[in-house]
Amino acid sequence: MSSRRHDRKTDAEVNQTAAGEADYPRRRTHTESAAPTGGYRSSKRSSRSGKKARRAVRTEQRRSDVKEKASRTGQSLAAIARRAGTVMASVVAVLLVLVLLATGINALARYLAKQQSVAETSPEALREKAKENVLIIGVNGKQGADFLAVRLDEKGGQIFGIAVPDGAFMEVPGQGFERIGDSYGAGPEVSLAAISNYLSVPFDKYVVVDKDTYQEALTSQSLARVMERVVATNLADADRERMASFMGTTSSDNVALVPLPVKPISLGDQTFFEPQRQEVAELLLSWWGVKVGAEDNIIRVIVYNGAGVPGIAGEAAQELIRNGMRVVDTKNADRFDYNESLIVVQDGELANGQRVKDILRVGTIVDQPSEQDVADIIVIIGSDYVPAGPADASTGG
User: Fold this and answer.
1) 112, 211, 213, 324: most buried, per Cβ within 10 A?
2) Segment (H or E) for 232
3) What whole-number distance in Å separates Cα of residue 75 and Cα of residue 68?
4) Which pLDDT score, from 0 to 100, does residue 15 have?
């Protein structure tokens, strides 16, 4: 029995032990937590996959944000571009309108200038302009001549004049670029044409006096005694009396007779004079209202002698100059067997060629554009041209 009690605990001992265990917890032994299903590696892979998934979500969100921002920016830029395009289109439209207006205004200005030029060079207008003008020619035998281009401003009570020395070089119709003094040897009509051509001022009346009278007028700044000493003129009696009265009653204070601005050029024992165009232009603008340089509407002509008749080109040139055209050269043609005159239009309208034909009364108009800038029209005089008779000249004592 004792052995059984030793081997088996009594109920009281068992209960005591149970109670002790309940009252006094045992020391815990270290035990690992139960690993999730699949094991450690599976759990790690799952964690990485989660991180990757979350990273992908964040990346996608960022991409979405970027796309949305880009879309908003693009829309804003598109709106700005549309507004800018509208503004630019408006600016271009305004500029186009301005260009068209400027072009139209320029075209209208050129048209009006041309019409004015045509009106100013009509025979009637030229005759009206020439009424105030007279060319005083001072001669000393046959040793050349000096010229005084005069404007008698009767309304203003003034007299203006430019003295042109015989040694001044300019285009002389029929003689080319020569001393103006030599023009008188071919007749006063040639001198009138040469002076008119150079100054762009119409002169169709002249008086001839001796050299002493000419010099006295320049020295005294008075034309009071000129008409008393005329040796030749083409003035009608009424014009002569009118001019003589005005010249005699105009005080020297209201008379300005100045030498042509020239530059002396010595060649051997002779002295020639080169007119100074700019200074001459100032006088012409002030006294005659002629603006040198605004000559785009003046028809420039070269005249060739194609008929072989001496002086025929000069005759034609004089007619053209009297009708408001500028003759820049006269010379012989390449041959003298032209039966028909030719009017070759190289710059400008064919209507200008018709004007030349109307003046010369003959000629075939040829349209032959050229890049040269010397003349607008070349006229080759043929045997069909008949010069107009020169103005009748009268002699006065």
Assistant:
1) 324
2) strand 232-233
3) 10
4) 52
Q: Global pTM?
A: 0.65
Q: What is the DSSP string of 294-345?
A: --TTSPEEEEEE-S--TTHHHHHHHHHHHTT-EEEEEEE-S-S--SS-EEEE
Asked if residue 151 lies in contact with residue 132, where contact means CB atoms within 8 angstroms, the answer is yes
Tell me the average confidence (pLDDT) per consecutive run of 10 residues in the chain, 397 residues long: 48 51 50 51 61 74 73 74 76 79 70 53 68 93 85 95 92 89 91 93 94 95 94 94 94 94 80 82 88 68 95 94 91 95 94 95 95 91 88 42
- For 153, what's the count of Cα atoms within 13 Å in the CB-facing half-sphere? 14
The residue assigned the tokens 């450690």 is 40
> 190, 147 in Cβ contact below 8 A?
no
Query: Which of 201, 172, 197, 171 has its CA nearest to residue 185?
Result: 172
d(CA 58, CA 51): 10
Q: How many CA atoms does the CB half-sphere of 141 hold within 13 Å?
A: 1
**Tokens 């309108």, residue?**
97
